[in-house]
Structure formats: C-alpha cells, structure tokens
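Late entry, written up from scratch paper. The run itself happened at the end of the previous shift, but nothing got recorded in the book at the time, so transcribing now.
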Amino acid sequence: MRKVQVVIDTNVFVSALRNDTGASFFLLTLVGKNEFEINLSVPLLLEYDAVSPRHLKQTNLNVTDLSDILDYICSASNHHKINYLWRPFLKVPKDDFVLELAVKSESRYIITFNKKDFKNISMFGVTAVTPWEFLTARGLL
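Output as recorded:
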C-alpha cells in the first residue's frame, strides 16, 4: 500500500526550526521514517532556503545545520517538476505552487498553518491541515 503523500508548507518547516517541542518539529522528525512521504519541487525548496535563514537567530542552529537539514529533506523527498498549467486558483497567488505540487504528487494533505489560504482545494482531493491535525488523525501523537 502506498504511503500517504503530503506537502509541507514553508510556515511549518520554519516552525519546526524555531520550536523543538511543537508538532511541526515532531512532524519533521518523522520524515524518512515510513509514516508518510513528503513531496518537494524546486520552487518549494527555494522558498524553504530563502525564508528559513531569516529565523536562525531564534534557533540554536547555524547555517551549516540548516544546510544539512535541507539536504536531508531533499534526500528524503519525492521530487516533482511542476509545469504550471493553471493559475491562479488560490486567493494568495504565491501559494498556487504549493497546491500544484500537491496535485502533481497526488498528495492527500498540505500541512500548513494557513488553512484559510487553501480554501476550496477539496475539489483536487487535497485537504489543508495543521501539523497537529495531521499527526493526531494519523495516530502519530
């Protein structure tokens, strides 16, 4: 049986870096542990790489640590090329590439703190959930 497919929004990735006791951090500790599969595209990785260094001062991490984490995420992810065949769909156009990745990868969930930005995505078979909602629904907490 195929593992559940997910896309992790940048706000969840950054939250995991900033708080090592929260649901986002726990979610990232499960990456590569056969509980689910994460999906990644170049635009999403570039966003992780652009946004996360701004938050390093609020962590115990340095640039090398962050690079190692990003390398691990890349190695543990399914990679997808997105062709941008339809846009815009979401209220916040910069989130369209996250939805496009979810659709392309046949992900069941977009894990995000901005659920309101992903309204009406159920028509694509995708649900926006918080890390806590995902972990509890999957029995991982």
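The first helix runs from residue 10 to 18.
(Scratch paper discarded after transcription.)
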